[in-house]
Amino acid sequence: RVDRCNAPRRPWLRGVCFVHEIMLMFQPRCRSWSCPACAEVNARWWAYRAEFGAKAILGVDDCEPQRNLMSFLTITSHPRLGESGSIGVFYHAWNVLRLRAQRGVPGGMYFAVPELTQRGIIHMHAIETYNLGRR
Length: 135
Fold this sequence. Notes:
Layout: E1 13-17, E2 22-26, H1 36-58, E3 71-76, H2 82-104, E4 110-116, E5 122-128
């Protein structure tokens, strides 16, 4: 774990509180995914944004404990499948998993974002109420 961003050429910023007569000098983080410190902060920030957005989109209410069981789920195709094999298998496998989850938890919901990794295989992040991420 890296504690702070060490990216070069970040400006120095100055914050002044005239009431308490203090000044603070700091360098903002670079926010790059390639920076270990910033990537960790970015991941936490995007997870928070995804949860907040999913609650709004999926209609999950904090006052309804039975519906407040959201899980974050990441699914990645096997690397040996390659790009075309990964895409061909992934959507069928997700559909089978989704149908099985719907039978187990009627009325469950999900919000999923598929993407291609740098290696060209498909990868998906989902926020779901089927409890798949907790099994």
